Amino acid sequence: MRVSRMFYLYRRLYVQQLKAILEYNKDFYILMCSAALTQVLGFVFLWVIYDRIPDINGWQFWEVTFMYAMIFVTEGVGSLFFEGTWRMGRLVNMGELDRYLLRPVPVVLQVFCTGIGINGLGNLLIGGVIIWQSLVHGHIHWTLGKITITLLLLLTAVIIRVSINLAANSAAFWIKNAGNAFPLMVHNLADLAKYPLTLFPQAIRVFVSTVLPYAFISFYPATYIFGKSDWSGWWMLAPVAALGSAAAAYGIFRFGLSRYESTGN
Amino acid sequence: MSAIQIKKYRSIANRSLQNVLAYRTSYVIGFLANAVNLLAIYFLWHGIYSGRAEVGGYSWDQMKTYLLVTFLANSVLSWYSETSISGKILDGSVAVDLLKPIDFQTARFSETLGASLLEGGMSAILLILFASFLSGITLPHSLLVYVLFALSLLGAILVKFGVVYLAALLCFWSTGSMGIVWTRIAVTNLLSGALVPLAFFPDWLERLALYLPFQSIIHTPTMIFLQQTGTLESLKLIALQAFWGIALWIAGKGMWNWAVRQVTIHGG
């Protein structure tokens, strides 16, 4: 299927969801504000700590807030545009996926558009402001090349995040009726990437760089942008990590789908 | 309350305990997810303390203990208890509860207590295992401190229930619970001292936090366990917990009376 057609279908499906959620506008605002608040409080946490000490392991305040915000922003994009991944448990267990299989539209595309997490908007706004502030305060020498690479790293970060979400939620094909516990655990592991990787023991560093490449969302982009020479070059693996996790996630999803048996009536 | 009344609520507590047991996989995975959080925070603090003897009046050993006690106090009343109240309101099963000859608030509290006993017990066991791998955890030596600590944990449950219950009742007015739950968690974490000890805050924020009920949830048990307060002062803090627990309970009653008038039950 052509890419432009995919975008067209995605947009149509998305707009339908948007209409649905705008009906409950009270929740809409509460969710948006609560996501923003959660993130602001994390920021306050770092601020309170940095008020007492100049650096953690050689990492300055704005460098850590950048990593912190990257985790939130990518999550925000994930909820805002790909919230459906989080509903897979229900789709599989209620047999709702049957409907999707009948339509001549890629199943994964339909899954992506099964909902809109409006909390993502809160994450995106506050996270965007924090990232922007980090970049302003980070004493960075901007060149055209650097701007291009930074944008590329933001894009790969989003791809990695959404891929991990898709892969983790595909567990619904195997774990019947366990709620969202497993994908939530995978989601929580992103906490490890909110802070500099140098804080952690080797095993954890390897884990969040390879198995679940969260470090390519926050840490490696930060080492490039803030010019941490000890780590120069590792960010170049970000596109590889993005392609790899996207392919792996799609593979897991397809494999799970082949095992899907629907629910009997 | 008569004996029959108490029996009723005890069976509710018992049932909720069994409920947690029935969904143990979810519970264990949820617990592991929180442990990941603890791990991240542990290493963050480890990094903060590298090359420093103390930060904000806490030594590294004290901070390790602080993290573990915080984790215990937080997992005593967990996600399960939290979502079961708002769930009842959102799916309309609260309508059935309105018909029953039991007090909604007391019933929910019994339920929470039942689940808390199990969740708290399991967390305590896992924490002891975890702590045995860490060196330098500062354990109190006097039995009295442990008694006071246990009392303060009960107080913490009471206060946290009060906060959770009030937040859950807001679901009568909204149509979803996630936003309310997240907001509640974020505010409680900050103002109770779950993120950083209150002593780390700037003065004005610390004073504000001490005037609010949230501090009873984490600040009080950790202060007692780390022996940063004397016996008399610990008792005062526990009395303060009791005060907040009762005040929130009364507020919950008031809000319930307002809320039941807003009930919209979907479906027939």
Automatic annotation (TrEMBL), chain A:
InterPro entries: ABC-2_transporter-like (IPR010390). It comes from the Bacteria. Keywords: Membrane, Transmembrane, Transmembrane helix. The chain crosses the membrane at residues 28-50, 65-86, 107-135, 147-168, 204-227, 233-253. PANTHER family: INTEGRAL MEMBRANE TRANSPORT PROTEIN, SLR0610 PROTEIN-RELATED. This is ABC-2 family transporter protein. It comes from Paenibacillus tianjinensis.
Automatic annotation (TrEMBL), chain B:
Pfam families: ABC2_membrane_6. PANTHER family: SLR1174 PROTEIN, SLR1174 PROTEIN-RELATED. Keywords: Membrane, Transmembrane, Transmembrane helix. This is ABC-2 family transporter protein. It comes from Paenibacillus tianjinensis. The chain crosses the membrane at residues 21-45, 117-137, 143-173, 185-202, 208-226, 238-259. It comes from the Bacteria. InterPro entries: ABC-2_transporter-like. The keyword Transmembrane helix applies. The keyword Zinc does not apply.
